[in-house]
Amino acid sequence: MDVLLNLTVNGLATGCLIFLLAAGLTLIFGLMDVLNFSHGALFAWGAYTGAWIYTQSGSFLAGIAGAVLAGVLLGFLLERFIVQPVYGDHIQQILITLGVLLVLGEMLKVFYGPNQISVEPPDYLEQSWVVNGVILIKYRLFVIVIGVLVFAGVQYMLQHTRLGLVIRAGVMNREMVEVLGFNIKKVFLSVFMLGSGMAALGGVLFAPYSGVIHAEIAMDYGILAFIVVVIGGMGSVAGSALAAVLVGLLGAYMAYYVPSAALAANMLLMVGILMFRPRGLLGGRG
Amino acid sequence: MTTLLQVEQIETYIGQYYILQGVSLEVRQGEITVLLGRNGAGKTTTLRSLMALNPISKGRITYKGEEIHNLATYEIARRGIGYVPEDQGVFPALTVEENLKLAMQNTDAATLERRDWILNLFPDLKTFWKKQAGVLSGGQKQMLAIARAYVNDNELLLVDEPSKGLAPIMVEKVMRSLEEMKQKVTVVLVEQNFFMASSIGDRFYIMDDGMTVLDGQMSELAADERLRKEYLGIA
């Protein structure tokens, strides 16, 4: 039982990290109809930039802020110069964003070197407690808290602000949003930057969680994010949160109980869910 | 009477298809101008071109004396043109309240007054205020779409086939509401139901093969069986 609870805490923390990555991706697809395969690169750039600032300054919070800022800035550049010219053309979107993923991944090696980098959590997040046999690691709880806060913040923004209303409407009918007097291109840019910032936040939190980072996390986590978005239902933030937690928990359980099947678990989960809910868990609910 | 919208020989391609091949309209303030014509004549594309949803390749569109054909859709909307598309375009997962809230660019007294006026005209919307727009009937969705276009300080409404798919009693209701709104806004109406349209329209334009081929006072067309037969195929 203790093992199961430990795995559950680990799975929830992993799920929160995946959610940070997938939430932006699902909004970008749902609103903008853009298949952004470069999203994983923003996660990786968040991890590296945050780790670098953290190492140089000694402040983990500065690392988080710097990573998010880098993600938002990269998101701005990507939307303006790479994605905007290929709106409405999925094939070109896939090709160009895959290209960006490869280029940004390789640029990490140019800037930070080809070897993996070790990252430790800051001292104040290093402790752990044992409660009824369950080991609670402070950093993992911190990741869960941040994940929950971001989810609550995004849900609040979507449900209670004018921008959120525009985004929810835009997911359903972009043309009508323009007809009502909104500059959809500005909304697209805001969402792209928001999604990119969240991916970078996921990356910077991932670095001490995993202990090591390498450029390949761009591809690995990019694919994982797509799986989560498809399972959750494209365009649904709540669906992505649910799917991310499911994927996180399944990953933790499978790695312990059936390690040989761990790699296939996410794919099997996706196939299983799509057989019964072809639009994903909460697909079509905004 | 002042000309609000002037359309001069516009041409529109959709992909490789040459849809509008020379459409000219003059819409006068305070009137209901009806676009008539058979299916595929280009009526819907004309409204979509006015909103830059299908941008024109040739011609000129002026609204209140200002050229608008080079503007983006949202800029045209902000100049005071509301559009009710053929499929109503309501946001099904948003509530009736949210659909209207989204459309309201201001919350000043004048906008709130317009909202209250339109809600009194369409009391069903008040009944379903907190319900998702997706659960409304076709007629109620049409009311919501019209209310959404009206709630801002729009001087011109472009309304595309509001009677399509509605029960006769609903069609009557929607048409009467447009007639009532005529006191406050100018309307360009695309309508297949000639007898409904003729009961509220002031002027008409008949379109055929992407061109405006005839225009005049609606009362003249209503009285001339030969013209109706020739251009619309109805007696």
Strand and helix layout:
The complex is a heterodimer of chains A (286) and B (235).
Chain A: H1 2-32, H2 39-57, H3 60-83, H4 90-112, E1 117-118, E2 128-131, E3 134-137, H5 138-160, H6 162-172, H7 174-179, H8 184-210, E4 212-213, H9 217-232, H10 237-257, H11 262-276
Antiparallel strand pairs in A: 1-4, 2-3
Helix pairs in contact in A: 1-5, 1-6, 1-8, 1-9, 1-10, 2-3, 2-4, 2-8, 2-9, 3-8, 5-6, 5-8, 9-10, 9-11, 10-11
Chain B: E1 3-14, E2 17-28, E3 32-37, H1 43-50, E4 58-63, E5 66-67, H2 73-78, E6 81-84, H3 96-103, H4 109-121, H5 123-127, H6 138-150, E7 156-160, H7 168-181, E8 186-190, H8 194-200, E9 203-208, E10 211-217, H9 218-223, H10 225-232
Parallel strand pairs in B: 3-8, 3-9, 6-7, 7-8
Antiparallel strand pairs in B: 1-2, 1-4, 4-5, 9-10
Helix pairs in contact in B: 3-6
Describe the structure.
The complex is a heterodimer of chains A (286) and B (235). By secondary structure, chain A is mainly α. Chain A has one domain: ABC transporter involved in vitamin B12 uptake, BtuC, CATH 1.10.3470. Helix content of chain A is 76%, strand content 4%. Chain A is built from eleven helices and four strands. Chain A has helices at residues 2-32, 39-57, 60-83, 90-112, 138-160, 162-172, 174-179, 184-210, 217-232, 237-257, 262-276; strands spanning 117-118, 128-131, 134-137, 212-213. In chain A, the strands form two sheets. A two-stranded antiparallel sheet of chain A has the order 1-4. In chain A, strands 2-3 form a two-stranded antiparallel sheet. The longest helix of chain A has 31 residues, at 2-32. Chain A is globular. The termini of chain A are far apart. In chain A, 50% of the residues are buried. Chain B has 235 residues and is α/β, with parallel strands linked by helices. Chain B has a single domain, classed as Rossmann fold (3-Layer(aba) Sandwich), CATH 3.40.50.300. In chain B, 37% of the residues lie in helices and 28% in strands. Chain B has helices at residues 43-50, 73-78, 96-103, 109-121, 123-127, 138-150, 168-181, 194-200, 218-223, 225-232, and strands at residues 3-14, 17-28, 32-37, 58-63, 66-67, 81-84, 156-160, 186-190, 203-208, 211-217. A six-stranded mixed beta sheet of chain B has the order 6-7-8-3-9-10, sandwiched between helices. Chain B has a four-stranded antiparallel beta sheet with strand order 2-1-4-5, with helices on one face. In chain B, helix 3 packs parallel to helix 6 (138-150). Chain B is globular. Chains A and B meet through helix 6 and helix 7 of A and helix 2 and helix 3 of B.
